[in-house]
């Protein structure tokens, strides 16, 4: 499905720094638009999803074993002021948990993470995922998502992988595992040759270090499990999750917003002039 012409206004509303605080109000605009055109199951286009990430700046990375905890977890995230989550496909019933959230908490911007192949991407889309995140760059997964207008943020770790993602038409990428790769210093190095390319770093991020990443110009959003740790979910500590999320959202509000960085593709190299 191509982008519905009305999405232009929705994307502009998400990108605009308007009076509604944070992501919840802006995501409500998207939901209301979907309802108005009668397309609740319609995919959110990549620019709108990226704009939502730019406003949220943090994404809870969720590992959930029991789907019965999915809806209470989503409620805790929403109550904490963060209507976004990456449900990783690291447990046998993760897709069922994702489906429960998308069906019972439609105001939640829930996507699938740890998507390793096209079959998992298709299953995630069927479960209602609003975006796809993978730990590495799989061209088959990327092509599937682009064909189905499903926002995708593949993982990269090297310059070669970044170049492959750029060739596929993407310039906001997951950078994983960032702490092992070199942390803030690595992102600063990447900003030289890859000016205009932006990243969602994850892998080792905590409540103690995520703000140092968000201070970088080439970082849109940080992903991490510090807001909803697996043992908290399993033991039903949803009030604790809500409180940690609320604290993280408040800390993000005190930071400078993520600004859209213009991206220009490298010029083609023409035949060299003949030597004189």
Descriptive report:
- With 276 residues, this protein is of the alpha/beta class.
- It has one domain: Aldolase class I (TIM Barrel, Alpha-Beta Barrel), CATH 3.20.20.70.
- It contains 13 helices and nine strands.
- The strands form three sheets. The protein has a four-stranded parallel sheet with strand order 3-2-1-9. A three-stranded parallel sheet has the order 6-7-8.
- Helix 1 runs antiparallel to helix 2 and helix 4 runs parallel beside helix 13.
- The radius of gyration is 18 Å and the shape is globular.
- The N terminus and C terminus are likely disordered.
Search tags:
single chain; 276 residues; alpha/beta; TIM Barrel; four-stranded parallel beta sheet; 12% strand; globular; disordered N terminus; disordered C terminus
């Amino acid at each position: 499905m191509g982008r519905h012409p009305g999405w232009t206004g929705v994307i502009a509303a998400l990108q605009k720094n308007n009076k509604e605080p944070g992501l919840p109000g802006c995501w409500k605009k998207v939901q209301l638009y979907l309802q108005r055109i009668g397309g609740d199951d319609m995919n959110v286009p990549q620019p709108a999803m990226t704009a939502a990430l730019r406003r949220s700046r943090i994404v809870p990375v969720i590992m959930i074993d029991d789907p019965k905890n999915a809806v209470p977890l989503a409620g805790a995230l929403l109550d904490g002021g963060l209507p976004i989550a990456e449900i990783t496909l690291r447990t046998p019933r993760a897709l069922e948990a994702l489906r429960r959230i998308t069906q019972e908490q439609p105001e939640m911007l829930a996507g699938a993470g740890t998507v390793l192949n096209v079959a998992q991407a298709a299953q995630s889309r069927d479960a209602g995922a609003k975006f796809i995140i993978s730990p590495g760059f799989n061209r088959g997964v990327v092509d599937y998502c682009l064909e189905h207008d499903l926002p995708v943020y593949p993982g990269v770790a090297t310059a070669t992988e970044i170049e492959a993602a750029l060739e596929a038409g993407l310039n906001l990428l997951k950078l994983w595992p960032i702490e092992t790769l070199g942390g803030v210093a690595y992102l600063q190095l990447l900003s030289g040759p890859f000016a205009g390319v932006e990243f969602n770093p994850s892998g080792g991020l905590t409540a103690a270090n995520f703000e140092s990443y968000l201070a970088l110009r080439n970082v849109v959003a940080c992903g991490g499990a510090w807001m909803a740790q697996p043992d908290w979910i399993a033991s039903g500590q949803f009030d604790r999750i809500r409180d940690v999320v609320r604290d993280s959202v408040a800390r993000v509000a005190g930071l400078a917003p993520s600004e859209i960085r213009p991206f220009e593709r490298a010029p083609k190299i023409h035949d060299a002039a003949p030597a004189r």
